[in-house]
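User: Teach me something about this protein's shape.
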Amino acid sequence: MKQKVTTAVNQITEGVIWKQLLFFFFPIVFGTLFQQIYNTADTVVVGRFVGKEALAAVGGSASQLANVVIGFFVGLSSGATVIISQFYGAKDEKNLKLTLHTAFAFSIVAGIVIGVTGFVFAEPLLKMMKTPADVMEESVLYLHIYFAGILANLIYNMGAGILRAVGDSRRPLYVLIITCVLNIVLDVVLVVGFKLGVAGVAFATVLSQVISALLVVLMLVYTREIYRLKLSQIRLHSRQLWAFLRIGIPAGMESVMYSVSNVLIQVFVNDLGTDTVAAWGTLGKIDALFWMVINAFGISITTFVGQNYGAGKFERMRKSVRICLAMSMFCAFIISGFLFVFGSRIFALFTSDSAVIEIGTHMIRFLLPSYSIYVIIGILSGALRGAGKVLVPMVLTCGGVCTLRILWLLTMGVRKPGINTIMLSYPISWSITAVLFILYYFRRFPRSHQNMQLF
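Assistant: First, the predicted structure itself:
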């Protein structure tokens, strides 16, 4: 039987939608901004004080592999956060607590398994990706240190996801501000001061992640809300584990397919030389301004849909999707225009190498006009995930974006090699997938909630 609790008015299920979306969105986007500064500091420091080989090592194949792992776990953990948001919206304290403690136990187990596996297979995987020989040694070193400390990263991501699921997007922001500043200081001290190069960047990242994990855990341990974490109760509960893995596994596989396609793209980019590798890796830092905004809207709508679904407010749930889609599309046009105009100047902040800047500027101007297409995919998939519907969206994403992109690379990428052919895979795959998502969304979110087919 559900245990009901009396809490303050939940603004996500009661307040003005556009205002609450913004209140929830801004801490997430600023948090992502600090996360990006956190990551970008690594590339700026090594690019300026070590060299373009170190820049390619940190921002190239090693970064892609790390993204595969973290993306998969974040996808898995999204299952827990969706379930928790629904229980929180329904004020079901018992099941919320069981899911919360199961989620943390899962994070610990996953951190140990992923850390050991990643450490052992880092070098073979980098070789499979055709990582240039002049950056191989430093790429392996970076990944060994990164995977040795990945447990802290997973605990932070799970804890921050839980806080956002219950509507608290501010405290994860505070954690990221603290650890961002710490990471920059450690980068300068270890790389510039102690001359540790790529190892210094990796150690700075791991130490910062340890602090972020500790802070998030303390926030959950000392809260007085129903989502309080009790360390003595951290254990796996099979029913709750299966409940969030049912949602998390498809989301994790979707993320992996995205990352696999990006890894394959990295393989084709690696064949074009160190200058192109450095430019491609740096582009990933620059256009992150766009992705962090769209992903923040995606996280916001997942929480809104999850809590309103749990509260049975289906019309409010649909309305929040429409508002979020309009807001995110507007932001997409503004950001794309800004990066298109100032892209070359931003590139010059990362490196003084003229060849890298020239290649990178061309990449920005080629890709940015099509970025707004992805907004449809990001928002609609986030909405469907919040309602617990993840299997078909996973199939649409894996087939429309990932598989199509891979087929493009293995056909056109081989027949007509070059950076333009590689980049063209993005707008083509996004356009087809966006159409599929629109058709599926209107089938699952009809105007009458009596006809809704969410599960």
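Now, about its shape. The first helix runs from residue 11 to 14. The mean pLDDT is 85. If you'd like, I can walk through any region in more detail.
User: That's plenty for now, thanks!
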